[in-house]
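Step 1: inspect the first sequence and its tokens.
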Amino acid sequence: MTLGVGILSHERRASVLRIVAAVRELSAEPVALVVADDGSGDGTAEAGRAEGVRVIAGERRGPAWNRNRALWHLLTAGCEAIVLIEDDLVPAQAGWDREWADAAERWGVVSHAPGDRAHVRTREGGEGTAKDPVRSPEEPAGALGVSRAALEAVGFFDSRFRGYGSAHGEWAARARRAGFGAARHERALPRKTRTLCIGGGLEPLADDGRGGDDEELAGNRRVARRVRGGTLYRDPWSGDEQRRAFLAEQRLTGVPDGGRVLRVRAVAAAPSSGEAIARTELVLLSLQPGVADPLEEHVLRRTAPREIDAAPEFLTRVSGGLVDGTDLLALNESAGEVLLDAPPAAPVELRPLGLAAGARGTLTRPAGPTADGGERAVLAGIHGRHAPGSFWLELVPRLLLARERGILGDAPVLVPPLRADEHAALELLGLGGLDLRTPVPDTLHRFGELLLPGPGVARARRACPAALRRTRAALAPAAADAVLPRRLFVARRDALARRTDEDALLELLYRHGFEAAWDDELTQPERIHHFARAEALLVVQGPWLDGALLAPEGAFVIELVAEGATAGEIERGWTLTSALGQRHAQVVCRRAAAGAAPITIDLEHLDRVLLTLLG
């Protein structure tokens, strides 16, 4: 287990340097160390950096914000347990770190037992060790040990608290609600017990009597009353302005904008319109024991987030273009290029034509004939029929963009095979009159001129945010039915029937205010009316994209993904919700056995996830 140590500082340069030295000298195991400095003017940040310590510093914002500085950094560093130490406590015993790591793992949340622990012990019991902590009616805040599981459940300190007072107590109350700390103790505890405390090898430094004034304390008590009983999970910021300021501080230390708890996606503007693409936040949760987070290597360990790229414009005009009818694989015969390298369902023979190999290996020529497709065509689809989400993320945005720019004209539009409900969606969008053609399988179709998206679009999984938002606006009903449910579980009956726990699953979801929307039984107009007012969608990774597209801006899309999901599977939903300005959570689940449903849903953990995200 990697222990993270966060030293919390304000105007105590000498104390911070002493604590840093003690952590380095007395820790039995390597620890991740960071100093969070809250607007000190005494050179604390500079002195810490001179000692080779990572320092996160910013303007004075109070203890709640400063604690979040350290928590975010240490979560991003991959720490499984974290201890926050105020600048008036110092490690004084060798191996102090092992005691805190053990206590955090056992209880989820522990605090430091201040002063005369013997007096507290005579009232509440406990030896002040990780195995037998003091049970205290107080909520001491000098040092806090917390596990990653607890932070993933309750999140960060509420940034609405400014200055001293109440922030620690409010956070600790949420931790108890989530079943950590005193709530986890196996013994029957007095009702007045609030906190489990350990000595943990920490000793106090000289107390300068620093604290909040009466006005500051009273203001935070009012905040505590206002936020009491709110959602269990809290972000480390309140609003976009605070989010930008918080992440800017982290970037100055070299920390990427994210951690395993929360990720903020940076995006670019679409150059075709100059319109800024909506930003979105992705909540990352892995609450099931032993399940590895598939996003960790792909997203969280990267030094910089990959931007959602520009709109998938029709930029390439090819003379003498070839299209393979199996997968709409476009080729430039004259230049010898594979222009779109979506993986074909079967090998495609092209060596006799002298065409270059695609990124996925050498291509071979099909046994079928070559057909004359005509003078001109527009290729609007990339993937074949088996690519989830390609209809909404690729085909529809391109058709809308091409129509808007007058590109289509009378030219036939080459598309993959479409289902009846997809044809119905095109009718609703006013695209039903297009000359849609699906090329004959295993045949190379030659066109005098072929207009198609530029190379690499398939690999980049680009979406056109402006087109997606216009699609949603065009499909939105004039007036949504007010009696329809606001929280929807999007599923197919045939998939759900493979689950042995379907009754228990539906009962759990009903308790959280969800109702099932059976995707295989809804017509397109019914989908539109069901999703138009949705505030939350719970979906299994895969056939859910049209539901997210029809949900309003700000809706919360909670996606259940299987461990070991590919980067493409991970980014598909993220790309869509980013473009639509929706919140997006991915919850990692165990992959089911062969022949069963795609994932195994642990109902106890799903209950905890929904409580964490939605309250």
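Step 2: inspect the second sequence and its tokens, then contrast the two.
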Amino acid sequence: LKEDISQESLTLATVWLLGEFGETLIQGGLVDEETPKPIQDSDIIELQESILQSPYANALIRQFVLTSLAKLSSRPAVSEPQKQRICNILNGFATSTELEIQQRAVEFASLFSHADIRGGVLEVMPPPEIKATVIGTVSERRSVGSTRTDKDSLLDLMGDDAAPAAAAPPAQSNTDLLADLFGGGSAAPTPTAPTPQKNSIQDILGLFDSTPTTTASPTPAPVPPTNGASLGGLFDSAPSPAPVALPPKPAAPAPAQAPAQNRPTFVAYDNNGLKITLVPQVLFSKPGMIQIQARFEAINGPVQGVTFQVAVPRTQQLQMLPMSSADVNPGSVETQVLKILAPPGSLVKLRIRVAFAGSGGAIQDQIDFAGFPASMTNGVL
């Protein structure tokens, strides 16, 4: 988690585990290559505090972190100075502009003055009860011809039913996403692969968007580029597949940003009555992690139906949050947040495609922007 907090699902799972079982980690430590590594309570709190300061922290992650810190404060293994530090962190969010976060911070902070009930409210979540059907004695006289298999028992334990083997419907023929984005034409149809049988391991890995390494079947998404119009051809002649921008997640709105006047701005597009300004934000302690706020302003008249699409080189990763509004009126500013993970020292390049309807009719433009300083991926603007 210290090295990469850009994966939201893994971050949420780790933060939850630290809140529930952080005391076990403090008492037992970690085993790194058969060498015990002690963990202090201050290490866990510093890690969670760094998550709150990360540009990848959205409203959901902040809620999880505040709950995790509150639970840690009730554990006997946490020292009094660290409990006071947790209280100060909670008080800092008592004036948050996000109502849910403000409510949690105020409620958790008030528990510090009720020591008699705090332990009961923040106690460890009890383990789930095992089904009665799972508990029993294995019979050594089990018949050889039994139709019940170990695989069936595992599926019953996980609460799944084995899916009957059947011919998979033909996969939908999709065109290359980047080729469609940049107008590179349609891709040749690829032969369909049989749908793998459902199993519990894939279900568990699916929770964290992972892919089992032992499977031989290609995963349905993302669809690898099949023609020369991929983004890899933009910055490199090698026909390597290019990463596709992650689809916007229907999550909570992006966290409140500091005033853009204190950070450098870069004009990426100013034409046909629409101006797009990019305002980057970096964290010196997390080089390579960049958050960019795209600001849309109407110059001459109202602009409607703005579509903003961005692609990055294949060595970088991009996540785009939903735009605040697709209609931009004069005097107002609409925003959209981009999160980029790039190798430190590399140059961030953007291929932008924008479409909208203005006073001159429907407009569609494409530009390549490389005006950011190379030091930006080192945490310096």
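Step 3: confirm your contrast with the notes below.
The CA atoms of residues 172 and 262 lie 48 Å apart. The chain has three domains: 8-121, 176-184+199-242, 260-378.
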